[in-house]
Amino acid sequence: MLVRGEVVREVPPEIARFSVTVAARDKNRPAALSRLAERSEAVRALVDGYGDAIDRRETGDLWVRPELKRSGEKVTGYAGSATTIVTVTDFGILGELMLRLADQDQTTVAGPWWELRPNSPVHREARQAAVAEAITRAREYADALGAEVTALLHLSDAGLTAQQPMMMTRAAHTMGYRAAGGAPPELELDPQVQTVQATIEAGFAISPPRLASE
């Protein structure tokens, strides 16, 4: 007997990621590079100020390029940007942090992306529930035949996925806010539910069916 065990769970996210990109532009190359370094360091200092609420801070894309006239190779200036990926575990500070970063000069904030950790116990629990579901189905089928499940012949993992809402996989929310003065406004973010699905296929041996005849 071959049966499938499938379980779908909706669970709260465990981490949130967002990106911070700072840009700089100047006719003078050293000035552009210096400005880019200063703005990048300001991002690092602001993020690090949140201590244990931050899971990690990682450098993403970094680029610097000369800007040319429409024709020819004459350099008119230099532009660059640096991106930092921030992973947050304390969702209570997430909105505040993102707005404070968006309040910096020439800074773009994108996200958040809500996720589960790769080693989250939710994945293990879903797999175990899928196995239990397969055993339950096998016993129900055997009972309908007047038989009993006697042995497990094979078990295969058809996959486990953590699905995010489509709106978050297509594009990120971006912020380019700049306050007119004072502290940035408060922003409360609602964590997006994560869908975890586990599927297994199992083959069972059953005793000879006791089929009733009428």
* Arithmetic mean pLDDT: 88
Global Rg = 27 Å
Q: State the separation between the terminal residues, measured CA to CA.
A: 25 Å
Computed structural class: alpha+beta
Any guess at the CATH architecture? 2-Layer Sandwich
Number of strands: 8
Number of domains: 1
The first-level CATH class name: Alpha Beta
Which strand order do you get reading across the main beta sheet? 3-4-2-5-7
Roughly how much helix do the residues carry, as a percent range?
Answer: 25-40%
**Which percent band covers the strand fraction?**
35-45%
Could you list the spans in which at least 5 consecutive residues all have pLDDT below 50?
A: 165-172
Mind describing the biggest β-sheet? 5 strands, antiparallel
Helix count, DSSP H or I runs of 4 or more residues: 4
Q: N-to-C SSE series?
A: EEHEEHEHEHEE
Protein name: SIMPL domain-containing protein
InterPro entries: 26kDa_periplasmic_antigen, SIMPL/DUF541
Organism: Plantactinospora mayteni
Give structural attributes.
214 residues, alpha+beta, Alpha-Beta Plaits, 3-stranded antiparallel sheet, 27% helix, elongated
What does this protein look like?
It comes from Plantactinospora mayteni. This is SIMPL domain-containing protein. The protein is an alpha+beta fold. It is elongated. A hairpin with a 6-residue loop joins β3 (54-68) and β4. The chain has a 5-stranded antiparallel sheet. Strands 1-8-6 form a 3-stranded antiparallel sheet. It is built from 4 helices and 8 strands; from the N terminus they run ββαββαβαβαββ. 27% of the residues lie in helices and 42% in strands. The chain has a single domain, classed as Alpha-Beta Plaits. The model is unreliable at 165-172 (pLDDT under 50). The protein has helices at residues 29-48, 94-102, 121-144, 166-170, and strands at 2-11, 15-26, 54-68, 75-88, 107-115, 149-163, 174-175, 194-206.
